[in-house]
Amino acid sequence: MAMSLDQILSRGVAEIISEAGLRARIAEGKPLRLKMGFDPSRPLLTIGNMVGIRKLRQFQELGHHVILIVGDWTAQIGDPSGKDQARKMLSYEETRENARTFMDQFFKIVDKDMTEVRWQSEWFGKFKLDDVFHLAKTFTLADMMAHETFRKRWESGQALTLIELLYPALQAYDSIAIESDVEFGGMDQKFNILAGRQLQERRGKRPQEVFLVPLLPGTDGNAKMGKSLGNTIDVYDSPNDIYGKVMSIADAALPVYLTIASDLPADEVTEYTRELAGNNINPRDIKMKLAYDIVRQFHNAAAAREAEAEFIRVFSKRELPTEMETFVISAPMPIVELLVAAKFASSKSQARQLIEQGGVKLNDDRIKTLDAVIPPAEGILSVGRRKFVRLSNTN
Q1: Are strands 379-383 and 360-362 parallel, antiparallel or unpaired?
Q2: What kind and span of H or E run contains 286?
Q3: 161 and 270 in one domain?
Q4: What is the mean pLDDT of the chain?
Q5: FRET pair for 198, CA 20 to 30 Å: which of 90, 173, 240, 283?
């Protein structure tokens, strides 16, 4: 069931510039051109990245059109995108492969038939030096120094290239090229999106509206969701992994997940939030509803039901998963190295931390020493209550 306009403009929204302008455009009755660009250097998405993408789908359900811009040209020249250091350049082949990966995830949510995919190289590939000068003179150095990251790098004496200073202008020109009505992005993209609005206005065009979405915290409740922190829920995760990760969300983060990452009805979200605040409900029960909904979004209802049944079987009944990967151990192996090799830890330091936290078990026996050596024998190695691997001494 499609959300009402009032719900779309209020639920899971950080800022709209301007809401009155956006409502006026919608009231005109013409399908809006909804712009979202992406950087091909980061093709793997978390459900945090999908917050804005879910908004696009909601607007599509009202009859509006999405214009997805692949930043293939800027990715090949280096894209700072709010980073404290310049980003490395990508090859043409890398941008194409990463774009395919991105779109495979993007179209899990967005209607492909109501989406127009455009590549920056369509217009920037034809740019001449006078086009660059014409674009550059639209912005002043003061405009660019209003960008917090640029200003900090300049003040700290770090290198700040002219190409990086031009990047917001290049992204802004995308809005000119596709005649954007509304641009979507996270709060970290506010400067660049406003630059698009500014460029349109300075060229005598109707400035695009700006639709900014909030940050989804990591599963541990931290403000940042990142691979290095181990607190992400990834779009490419299996149904069981998504379900299990949602069940591990910090209780304090539940209200924001319910609000901006779920399709649960607004009245249910309000009631669950109220009951959580009053300690009148077990957070586990709410997490199960949330986990089912998120798995359904990125897979389907059948996968959500199966993931729920598997979770109940493994976690509530303390049984082993029905499916486990096998890791062949043909010679004695230090536990720290084994955890990294079996992909339970990304580094030896993280492996040591897992052991010190008491979460590593071999056949239900907790491994307590960092220098433990695992023999080449059959068994079940587990980390916490979500990660399991079957050890085998034969191929």
Answers
A1: antiparallel
A2: helix 283-298
A3: no
A4: 87
A5: 90
